[in-house]
Amino acid sequence: MDKLVIRGGNPLQGALHVSGSKNTALPLMAAAILTDGPVELTNIPDLKDIDTFSRVIQVTGTSVNFDPVGHRITLDASGFDRAEAPYELVKRMRASFYMLGALLARAGKARVSLPGGCAWGPRPVDLHLKGMQALGAKVELDQGYVVAEAPGGRLQGGRVTLEPSSVGATINIALAAALARGESVIDNAAIEPDVVHFCTMLQKMGVTMEGIGSRTLHIQGSESLSPVAFENCPDRIEFGTFMIAAAIAGTPDSPVRITGGWTEHLGSVFMDAFERTGSVVSADGDGLLITAPEELRPVSVRTDIYPGFPTDLQAQWTILMARCAGNSKVHETVYPDRFKHIPELQRMGVNAIIVGDEVMIEGGKQIQGTQVMSTDLRASVSLVLAGMVASGETHVHRIYHLDRGYERLEQKLAGAGIDITRVSYDEWADPE
Ligand code: UD1
After folding, report:
1. Fewer beta carbons under 10 A from the terminal one: N or C of the chain?
2. Annotated active-site residue in 118, 199, 233, 324
3. Three-state secondary structure along 222-253?
4. Among this protein's residues, is 118 annotated catalytic?
C-alpha cells in the first residue's frame, strides 16, 4: 500500500494546475453507450475512478481506449452486447450506478448491482429507482442486483420529482430519458455544474432538452443519437482544494497561481466565504492569483446543494478554520454524518468537535504531524492539507482513497514547494 509523507512548514509557491473533473467525466463516459460509433472525450483526468468506470463500461462490449498523457478517452459502443454491471466493479465506485439509466436507454433492460453504503454512511438510490419507474421501467431487486426492464424494449418517458435534489439521480434519469419514446420531466432537478455540463453533451449528441441549469428539466427522447467529440470541464473540487491550500500554506508576499479552474463552477457562496477569510483572489490571464493574508479570519459555513457551499469542500475548509485565530462552525446539511476526518485531525492537535451535524472549530492551535489514516476521498485531502502546515512529519496512510479523485497530487504539490513523497509500506508490519 502507499502512504504520503509530508514534512510540514514549507511555503506553497508558484503554480498549480487543475485537472479535468472526475465527477463530470463519469457521466460523459456513460453517455457514450447511447450511440454507435466513437465518442471522443478530452480533459479526462488520469484517476483510479476513471479506470474503474472504463472496466464497468467494457463489460457491455463497448471498447474504451484511454490516453492518460493526452487526457483523452475514446469509447465505441458499436459492439454493445451485454446490459449488466457486476457487483465486483460497482462495489468499488458508487457512480457505476449510472449504468442503470444508460443500459435501460440503450438495451431496454439492465441488471446492475446495488452500490451499498460508503465510507461516511448510507447513501440511498431510491430516487434513481423511482425515476426509472416513472419513465416506465419495471424494477425488481434480485440478490443484491437491480433488474429493470422497459416493456416493449423501450422506455416511454414520464415525470418525476426529486426530493431532495440529487446529482446522481438527475444524471441517471436523464441518461434513461435520452432514448425514450416520449418526453420526460425532472422536477427539482440538480443544477450542479457537473449536471449542466453533462446535459450539454447530451444536447450535442442530439437530445432535445429544455431547462438545463434550472430546477425543471424537460428531455425529449430521440430515436438515435450521434457520436460526438466533447471536452470535459475542470474539477471544481480540486480547484477549491488548491485555493484553500494557497490560503493556509502560501505567503502574503508570494501569491499562488492556479490555472485551469472555472470560478463560476465553485459557486458564489464558496467564493464569498473564501474572500471573507482575508485571502485575496485576483484574475491573472487564464488563471487566478491567491494571496494568503497576514492573518486568516474565521468564517462559518453551511453546506448546501449548488450554488451553496459544496459538501465536497467542507473537510478542507475545516483545516482553513483550524489556521484562524478564533472560533467557527462547519454545518453539513447534505450528508449530516460526513465527519470521518475529524477524529484523525484531532490526533494532529486540531481542536474540533462534532455536535450533531456541525463541527465546532477552535482555531489557532499548533497542528502536529503524526500517523493518520485516509477514510474517504475528501477526508484524505484534508489530512494532506493539515500535514502541509503541521510541525514535523505527517504520514497519511491508505491513500488509495486520494488516488480515486486527485490526479498526481503529490507531484503537483511538490512542484509548488511542498515537501511530500509517496512511500510504499506494509500495513500489517509491527512498529519499529
Ligand atoms: C455527487 C458527487 C459527490 C457529492 C454529492 C453532493 C459524484 C460521482 N459524486 O454524489 O462527490 O458529494 O454529489 O454534491 O458526482 N439521495 C437520496 N436518494 C437518492 C439519491 C440521493 O435520498 O436516491 C440524497 C443523498 O443521501 C444526499 C442528497 O440526496 O443527502 C444529495 O446526494 P446526491 O446529489 O445524489 O449525491 P451523489 O450524486 O451520490
Report:
1. C
2. 118
3. CCCCCCCEEECCECHHHHHHHHHHHHHHCECC
4. yes
> Is residue 121 predicted with pLDDT exceeding 70?
no
Q: Cell numbers of 317, please? A: 475548509
Residues in the chain: 432
Rounded to the nearest whole angstrom, what is the distance from the C-alpha of residue 415 to the centroid of ligand 1? 33
At 88, give phi and psi (nearest 5°). -55, -30
Rounded distance, CA 4 to CA 6, Å? 6
Cell numbers that stand for 354 in this block? 462534532
The reported pTM is 0.96
Q: What are the backbone dihedrals phi and psi of residue 348, each rounded to the nearest 5 degrees, phi first?
A: -95, 5
Q: Decide whether 2-19+235-424 matches 22-231 in CATH topology.
A: yes
C-alpha to C-alpha distance for 47 and 30, rounded to whole angstroms: 16
3-state secondary structure of 211: coil
The per-residue b/e assignment along 76-108, b for 16 or more CB within 10 angstroms, e otherwise, is bbeebeebbbbbebbebbbbbbbbbbbbbbbbb
- Peptide linkage before 255 cis (omega within 30 of 0): no
Q: Is 319 helix (H, G, I), strand (E, B) or coil?
A: helix
- In single-letter form, the type of residue at position 400 comes to Y
Helix (H, G, I), strand (E, B) or coil at 431: coil
| Ligand 1 center from residue 168 Cα (angstroms) | 6
55-73 burial, b if ≥16 CB within 10 A, otherwise e? Answer: ebbeebebebebeeeebbb
CATH assignment of 2-19+235-424, among 3.65.10.10, 3.40.50.720, 3.20.20.140, 3.40.720.10:
3.65.10.10
* Residue of the CA atom closest to atom 33 of ligand 1: 166
Residue type, 413: L
Q: How far apart are CA 237 and CA 224, in angstroms?
A: 34
Q: Which of 55, 61, 101 is nearest to 82 (CA)?
A: 61
What is 22-231's CATH number?
3.65.10.10
Give residue ranges with CB within 6 A of ligand 1: 23, 26, 95, 123-128, 164, 166-169, 190, 194, 311-312, 334-335
pLDDT tens digits, one per residue of 341-353 = 999 999 999 999 9
Which atom in ligand 1 lies closest to the alpha carbon of residue 192? Answer: 14
With a cut of 90, say whether residue 118 has pLDDT above it: no
Residues 351 and 362 sit within 8 Å (Cβ to Cβ): yes
Distance CA 377, CA 406 (A): 8
Is the separation of the CB atoms in 97 and 172 below 8 Å?
A: yes
pLDDT per residue as tens digits for the range 245-290 = 999 999 999 999 999 999 999 999 999 999 999 999 999 888 999 9
The secondary structure element, H or E, covering residue 113 is: strand 109-113
